[in-house]
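DM from R.C. (forwarded with permission)

"hey, sorry to bug you on a friday — could you get me a structure for this? deadline for the figure draft is monday and I only need the backbone to look sensible"
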Amino acid sequence: VQLQASGGGLVQAGGSLRLSCAASRGDFSRHFTGWFRQAPGKQRELVASIGRSGTTYYVGSVKGRFTISRDNADNTIYLQMTGLKPEDTAVYSCAATGPTGQWTYWGQGTLVTVSS
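My reply, with the result:
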């Protein structure tokens, strides 16, 4: 599975962005997928995930503001981000699990910068 992330950029606080992650050589619907982020000086954290059945998870700080979704026809997952805050500034990466259930496949990061 090869992943290609896009959609990052600079936005003012309160604004919105949508990140996309397209998969090639694989079927997203057969993998547990998610979005991670890493801010400068901080550990990488799982922001949101979506399971094969469509079950979603969100870290507390983004609940109610971010929405993860999957388009099986386009083999793409999305992260719709609204009400962005400066603390959401980070490099966001998409990932998918492999046969062992570990986060095995990674897309390149896309930078999201939220100005105050």
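R.C.: lifesaver. The two ends are 37 Å apart (CA to CA).
me: no worries. The longest strand covers residues 17-24.
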